[in-house]
Design goal:
The complex is a heterodimer of chains A (about 120) and B (about 290). Chain A is an alpha/beta fold. Chain A has a five-stranded mixed sheet, sandwiched between helices. In chain A, β2, α1 and β3 form a beta-alpha-beta unit. The relative contact order of chain B is 0.08. Chain B contains nine helices and five strands. In chain B, α1 packs across α4, α1 crosses α5 and α2 runs antiparallel to α3. In chain B, strands 1-2-3-4-5 form a five-stranded mixed sheet, with helices on both faces. In chain B, β3, α7 and β4 form a beta-alpha-beta unit. Chain B is of the alpha/beta class. Helices cover about 65% and strands about 10% of the residues of chain B. The chains are: A alpha/beta (about 120), B alpha/beta (about 290). Chains A and B meet through α3 of A and α6 and α7 of B.
Chain lengths: ~120, ~290
């Protein structure tokens, strides 16, 4: 699917890599495919890689929250990984409370979090 | 007409210098020896060399009529000469006042040299004096500006260095960073600390960050806000922050300010914080004794 790439890492974890063509302002267009993929693989965790994202604005943050809500409905844990320093700093400036989704350093870390839950 | 008059003023001064160069040079050297000899700021040889160099540059600028042209090579050469002189005096422990008095006696020596010149009438004498005053004022200002710029640069560099050294982020164990904060946290310092810390988390792939605030004496709502912001950014990166060393007065202030640190782990001392970090990472530190 244009804008996102889903990879099954193991039976429990799915890796989501977002491309430059992802449009966070239109989250609905990605919802079906993501949910189907998670359900088909009975995934316990969705690992969202933010390595290529240098700035997270309000729209992108809403997209992450939207995805988190979808995952919760599917009993899947959303874990955001590889957030860049600039994105973390920028996001910390405008959020009032810590987001609902989990964060981890990298895939290994995220897997541990999934196993603990 | 006015241009002719100006040229004649310069020529008059050059003529005067040619006739009195020996006396003027002697005056400068004597006064220089008196002013700097005792304090050892400049040796007698240096005073002589400076005197010769100054007179050469001075005659050159008059000959080319560039005394008002700040972009000219001759003017810049004279500024460089004075700048070098000012640096030399300050390097040896002298002050800007001593340099200014050196410039003052250079000017006085030139004016004294005009004293016995009978070829000048009152108007020409006045013209020469005005030109000298204007030139020396301009040069003083230029040198002083360079001096202030350098001072400002030094102060800024020292501030930057202080900022860097006052926030030593150390990887105390694989995956464990420590950051002792001493003094107050204002917006600019928070930004520097946060930038360094987040970069370090990314580079070292650190999972635990122990921030020790034992050295923070006071806290207000703004500082608390900065601290919370820092915790959020650390967690967003995927690391876990631990705050240690919250003094009783800081704890009281945080409570009075209704500030909730949320689910941030806190420990009484840096040692406890480190133990918590190790526990998190399943690291067991054993003593042989």
């Amino acid at each position: 699917m244009q804008g996102i790439h889903l990879t099954l890492l193991s039976r429990q974890c799915v890796l989501l890599e977002s491309g430059m063509s992802l449009n966070p302002a239109k989250p609905d267009q990605y919802a079906d495919e993501i949910i189907c993929f998670l359900q088909k693989n009975r995934s316990k965790g969705l690992i969202y890689d933010l390595k290529k994202i240098s700035l997270i604005d309000k729209t992108y943050f809403q997209w992450l929250n939207y995805l988190d809500s979808l995952c919760r409905l599917n009993n899947t844990l959303l874990i955001v990984i590889n957030m860049t320093p600039s994105a973390a700093y920028g996001l910390s400036l405008f959020i009032e409370t810590f987001p609902e989704f989990k964060t981890a350093l990298d895939v290994e870390d995220a897997r541990e979090v999934i196993l603990q839950n | 007409m006015a241009k002719e008059k100006k040229i004649s003023t310069e020529e008059l001064l050059i003529e005067n210098l040619k006739i009195n160069i020996g006396n003027i040079s002697e005056m400068i050297e004597n006064q220089g020896a008196l002013a700097f000899g005792e304090s050892n700021l400049l040796s007698l040889e240096e005073v002589e060399d400076y005197s010769t160099e100054f007179l050469e540059l001075f005659v050159e600028i008059l000959q080319t009529h560039h005394q008002s042209d700040k972009e000219s090579n001759e003017y810049q050469a004279l500024i460089n000469f004075f700048n070098h002189c000012s640096e030399q005096i300050q390097i040896r422990g002298g002050t800007m006042e001593e340099f200014v008095s050196y410039m003052h006696f250079l000017q006085t020596s030139l004016i004294n040299g005009l004293q016995d010149d009978k070829s000048m009438n009152m108007a020409q004498y006045r013209e020469v004096l005005l030109m000298l005053a204007s030139m020396f004022n301009d040069i003083s200002l230029q040198v002083f500006k360079i001096y202030l710029d350098e001072k400002e640069f030094t102060i800024r560099a020292q501030q930057e260095e202080l900022l860097q050294t006052s926030t030593p982020i150390t990887e105390i164990w694989d995956g464990v960073l420590t950051l002792p904060i001493i003094g107050s946290l204002d917006s600019s310092r928070t930004m520097v600390v946060m930038e360094k810390l987040l970069k370090k988390i990314e580079d070292e792939r650190s999972r635990m960050v122990v921030i020790d605030v034992t050295g923070v004496i006071t806290i207000d709502s703004q500082v608390a806000h900065h601290l919370i912001q820092m915790m959020r950014a650390i967690k967003l990166m995927g690391a876990t922050p631990i705050i240690t060393g919250i003094r009783p007065e800081i704890a009281r202030a945080l409570t009075n300010l209704n500030i909730d640190l949320g689910d941030v782990v806190t420990r009484a001392t840096l040692s406890d914080g480190l133990k918590e970090a190790f526990r998190h990472l399943n690291i067991i530190v054993k003593s042989d004794h």
